[in-house]
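Possible regression after last week's pipeline update?

I re-ran a chain I had predicted before the update to compare outputs. Posting the input and the new output here so someone can diff against the archived version. Not blocking, just want to make sure nothing changed silently.
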Amino acid sequence: MPFQDKRNDTGHVENVTYFALRLLEHFPEVKRDIVMPAAILHDTGWSQLTDTERALFYETGDDGTGTQICIRYDPILRARHQEQGVYMAGRILTDLGYSQEHTPHILEIISEHDTRNGFISAEDGIMRDADKLWRYTYPHILLGIRERGDIPEKLRDLLIDNCKKEGFFYSDIAREIAMIELEHSMDEYKRQNG
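New output (post-update):
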């Protein structure tokens, strides 16, 4: 737990783990022993970045070229947290005596879970679907509005557009869950904020 939720995203790992479990119900052939550790450990690398680095992820100021700072640093921060995530996950799995048979695949999933195009396996697809489903939850919607100043309707439209993109989700069931989750999240936001 001390390595989780380091981007002011309390509950992220719990939500991702929950969605991974839900998705696995639809894919009995997918190896749970790979998906679940990857889901739990995928963002531990954020714990190895400095507070200043993590703050850049939400910085909306201009960098002097007209580009928001968060956009400029996003690829760098994502690559760093993935690299550090492989290190942290490898260390944790080794310390726990986790299966050497599954560890390389878990680490490969974590290595590019935010930046890889396509899916290297069903396990990768399910874990990354679970991670992306977090974006459709009420806590993430609220975080986007409060931390980045997102406009609720624009954020909703962006999430709908992402859901429709070819290759964004691995599975059709993730798309269905995303749209249901988004509807509930927007209803809750309206209920809480008028």
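Follow-up from reviewer: compared with the archived run. The first helix runs from residue 12 to 24. Marking as no regression found.
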